[in-house]
Amino acid sequence: MLASGVGRVLLLDILKSPIAAVNDFYTLTGRALINVIRPPHYLDDTLTQMDTIGFGSLMIVSLTSFASGLIITMQMSRALAQYGVTGQVGQIVAITIVRELGPLLTAIVVAGRNASGIASELGSMKVTEQIDAMRALGTDPIQKLVTPRMIALAVMLPVLTILADFIGMVGGFLIAYFNIGLTPDQYWRTAYRALEYNDLAQGLIKPFLFGFVISLVGCFYGLRTTGGTQGVGRATTEAVVVASVWVFLLTSLITRIFVNLH
User: Fold this and answer.
1) What is the pLDDT of residue 66?
2) Burial letters for 120-151: b for 16+ Cβ neighbours within 10 Å, e otherwise?
3) Run of H or E including 126
4) CA 38, CA 35: separation in Å to the nearest integer?
5) Would you say 171 and 105 are in contact if contact means Cβ atoms under 8 Å apart?
6) End-to-end CA distance of the chain
7) pLDDT reading at 16 higher than 90
8) Distance, CA of 108 to CA of 189 (rounded, Å)
C-alpha cells in the first residue's frame, strides 16, 4: 500500500508540470484571441511584425520553394518518362506544391526563423524584467506583445505560401522546359486544370492555422523563460521544436479532413 501511494504521488508530480503548461498555453491562446476584438489595438506593432515576418522571410521562403519545385519536377519527370506521360508533370507539381509542400515547407521555414525570434525576443524581455515593468505601468503584455505577433503571422503566412507556391511552380517549369522539352502552354495548362477548389482551400487554410500556432508557441515559450541567457536559448530551441511538431500534426489532420470531404 505504501509503495502504491508513493507511486501515485510520483506520477502526479510528473504529470503536474505538463498539465500546467497545457493549461497555461490555452489560457494564453484564449486571451490573445479575445484581444483581437478588445481595445486597445496596437496597429503599429502589428504592421511592424508583418514587415519583419513577411518581408524578412521572403528570401529564404523563395529559395526553399524554388528548390522544391526543381527537385519535384526532376524526380517526377524521370518516373513519368517510363510510362510516356511526361506531359502530366505540371499537374503533379501543381497538386503537390499547392496541397502539401508549399504550406508545409513555408511553415517550417517560418517556424525556424520566427518562432525562435519571437521566443528569444520575449524571453530576453522576461529575464530582464521588462515585462514586469510593462505590467506595473498598466499595459497588458499579452495585448501588447502576443496579439500583434499572432495577427501578423496569421496574415503573412498565407501570403508567403501563395508566393512560395508560384515560385515553386516556376522552378518546376524551368526543368520541364529545358530538360523535358515541354512548352509553356503544356506545362501551365495542365497545372491550372489540375487544381480544384479543394486544393486551393487546403493551401490557404493550412498556413492560416499554422500562423496562429507558430506565433502562440513562440510567445508561450518566450513568456515563460527563466534562468537568464541560458533560459533564453533553451526557450528558443523548445519553441522551434514544438512549433515544427505542431505544423506536422496539423497538416496531417487537415489533409485527413479534406480527403474525407473530397
Assistant:
1) 93
2) bbbbbbbbeeebeeeeeeeeebbbebbbbbbb
3) helix 116-127
4) 5
5) no
6) 55
7) no
8) 30
* Grid cell locating 88: 502530366
The three-class DSSP label of residue 41 is coil
Model confidence pLDDT, tens digit, residues 100-147: 889 999 999 999 989 988 999 998 888 888 888 888 888 888 999 999
Q: Say how far apart CA 195 and CA 231 lie, in whole Å.
A: 46
Residue written as cell 498556413? 207
Amino acid, res. 104 = L
The residue written with cell numbers 501570403 in the block is 159
For residue 54, the model assigns a pLDDT of: 86
Neighbours of 4 (CB within 10 A): 8
Measuring CA to CA, which residue among 260, 140, 117 is closest to residue 198? 260
pLDDT tens digits, residue range 145-180?
Answer: 999 999 999 999 999 999 999 999 999 999 888 888
